[in-house]
Every structure is written in structure tokens, then in C-alpha cells.
Amino acid sequence: MPDVSEGLLEIADNLYALALGDFTPARDARAKELKGTDLAAPVKALRKPSLAAWVVNLLVRRDAAQVTQVLDLGTALREAAAGMEGDELRALTRQRRQLTAAVTTGARSLAAEEGVRVTQAVADQVEATLTAAMVDERCAEAVRSGLLVTALAATGVDEVDLSAAVATPEALGFSATPVEPVEPGPPELHVVPDPDADEKAVAAAREQVSETEAAVAAAREALDAAAAEVTELEARGMQLQAEIEELRRKLAEVEESSDQVEEELADAEDVRAEAEATLASAAADHDAAAAALARLQG
């Protein structure tokens, strides 16, 4: 139903703008508020974004103007690439990589302002998502929605399945609401003791706990990504070691064959030397016999 879809998009827009650690409790609380309505189930089903997806969503909301420029440039580059060949396409690819790398650096800075450290592995996923948005029109729509739940990857050739990449299918065509960073105001000065100091301290402590939960979640995701990379490299290392052992075995076989050939060559050379001596002796005997025959006949 259109009204349900619109309501879901509005709620999702608010939820995916939150800090990563706040998403799940805020989603569950919202679904509880909506209990008994058509929106309760779809709100409860909204998935928590991965760290890379959250960084892209943050970038879309906090630097909407730059993201719009990137996506518009992606459209222009896709149109321009249709008439290019060879060197021109390679130059275009280099320019696109430089742009996505620069924007990814900006996204990491925004995440750092939110207290979230972005590892290189996550940054690579962010850059891959921006690249996908530049080479694929539907990926651009997914990024513009600010409702990503996973990172994207696209070659610009094959169609990308976005069914599991966005919070809801209606996200394609939706634009995230920009969020202006809140500038800290001047500190409040109190001449008299604050009677609510203890309550405020508790609230501040709770907020700190919430922020550290987000940092822990981000750290866990970073650890998982790093562990996956280690596992992959270990497997590759084992494969290469096996290939090295196989090459060593083949080398040992070739060296053994070479030694055998050298021995056989030495024996053959001895046989040849004996044959040459026998030939020389036989030739001498022949010459002597021929000379004796000549004397007798003369």
C-alpha cells in the first residue's frame, strides 16, 4: 500500500541516519510503538547496516552535495564511455579511481567525527560502493537513498542484484534527508550548584556507554573483516607453499636426470675414444698391408 510504503521510508530514513550502535534499539522501540499497525512488521524487519554501508549512508546525509556531484559525474562518465576506446577508457578509469579514493577519505573523516574508526578493509568496501554507483545507474539510486545495508560492487557490465543491498525495495528512487552537523554551542556557566547534576551525570554516562557500544560493534566488524582476510591469505600461502614443494620435487627429478645423462655421456665419450683408437690401429694395419702388397707386386 502506498501509504505504508511512504511511512516505512520515512521511518527508515530516520533510523538509518542514527549512529550504528543506536540502530537496533531504536528500530525495536519504533516497531513496539507501531504494534497493531501495518507498519510494525516491516519496521521490525529493517536490517542493521554493515559498517561500510553505514559509512556510505553517513556520507550521503552529511555531504549530500558532494555525493550528488559524484553521482551526476558518474552519469556523465557512463555516457562518455560509450564513445571511447583504449587509452581514453583507461584514462577515464584512473580519473574515477582518484575521485572515489578522495571521497572515501572524506567519508572516513566523517566517521571519525562520529567516533568510529574505519579500517582499510572497510574503506575498500566504501570505495567499491562509490565506484559501483558511478558505473551502474541502479547502484547510484541505492546509494542516493541512504538506506544501504551492505556494500555494493559492480562492473558496469552485468546487472547488480540489489534486493538484499537496501533496507526495502522502495528505497530505489528515494533520496535520503540531508543532515547538517550540529555545531557545539558555548558551554553553559552556572553560578550556583546544579541540583540535577547527579541525574545529568547518569545520563551522560549512559550516552557514553551507547557510544562505546557503537565503537565495540565497529571494532568487532573490523576484526571479522581482518580475520577473514588473514584466513584467505593463509589459504593462499598454503597453496603457494604446495606449489613450491611440487616445483622442488620436479627440480630434484630434473637434477637427477641431468646427473644420469652426464654419467652416460662420460661413458659414451670413453667408448668413442676406444673406437677411435681401434680405427687408427686398423687403418695403420691396412696401410702396412697395402704397402707390403705393393712391394711384392713391384
Keywords, please?
298 residues; elongated; mainly alpha; 9 helices; 0% strand
Order of helices and strands: HHHHHHHHH
Shape: elongated
- In whole angstroms, the N-to-C terminal distance is 133 Å
Give the biggest sheet: none
Strand content: under 5%
Poorly predicted runs of 5 or more residues: 187-192
Oligomer: single chain
Mean pLDDT: 85
User: What structural category arises from helix and sheet content?
Assistant: mainly alpha
The gyration radius over C-alpha positions equals: 38 Å
Helical run tally: 9
Total strand segments? 0
What does this structure look like?
The protein has helices at 2-15, 23-33, 40-44, 51-62, 64-81, 86-113, 120-135, 137-145, 197-297. It is an all-alpha fold and 298 residues long. Helix 4 (51-62) packs across helix 6 (86-113), helix 5 packs antiparallel against helix 6 and helix 5 (64-81) packs across helix 7 (120-135). The longest helix has 101 residues, at 197-297. The model is unreliable at 187-192 (pLDDT under 50).
